[in-house]
Prior knowledge:
alpha/beta, 8 helices, 30% helix, binds 6-phosphogluconic acid
Amino acid sequence: MTLRTIDCGDRGQIAVVSDGMELALAAASAVLGLMTNAVQARGVGTIALSGGSTPKTMGMLFHGEPFHSAMPWGSLQIFWGDERWVPLNDPESNAGEAKRGYLDEMPVPPANIHPWPTSGDPDNAAGIYADTIRANVPGQPLPIFDLILLGMGDDGHTASLFPGTSALSITDRITAPNPVEKLNTTRLTFTAPLINAARSVIFLAGGAGKAERLHEVLDGPLETDRLPSQLIRPTSGELRWIVDEAAAANLDRK
Ligand code: 6PG
């Protein structure tokens, strides 16, 4: 249940809920509503899931009602906004964890679940994924997702757009490899232009560890290289945040 909403203008509409379970419930409900509307309007619902830990609780809710029966699973095209450079069977894999956690038990045609390719060359893999997106997500000049779910790292990153990394400044591609020195790895990620083309973008952020950074991202000056979550400003779509009280503790507006 939403305790309060905060209007942060072009930084988004913030729904504050009490705790992690309420955050997961609010997220699952938002996915259900947006996907139902998309399928009713256009016959398909296109969604990009985020990685990390926050979506896992939401995923577990999809096993139960009303979500298992009400979600238009057969009409969804499911992607991920970013991925680690690991095989699907690796516990670090965003797609692998979602498939193992719930997706493989939902009635989604396997051809409609699109993990990133994570073998060969990262740049080539990003190009293949861009082609898959363009083949399954309508929209010109950029594919228009009905919903892109995002998390926010304690450092202000989102997807795999990390502070000070090369992918932050890419404007001529919808996907990219992104070397992340502090993680000693190359990640794969949607670029900001693709995310900003979406009809709906929803950030999920929970826990006290997010509080200071969330305050900087939502209340502070624009510093997109240091706070890449601030790159996300949908061109015409909606920007929402679902956060718990602990993450919202430092926000200027209560
Ligand atoms: C990833 C995610 C990443 C995540 C944030 C928040 O691959 O890790 O896509 O952007 O959303 O790091 O993660 P938590 O939900 O675990 O806080």
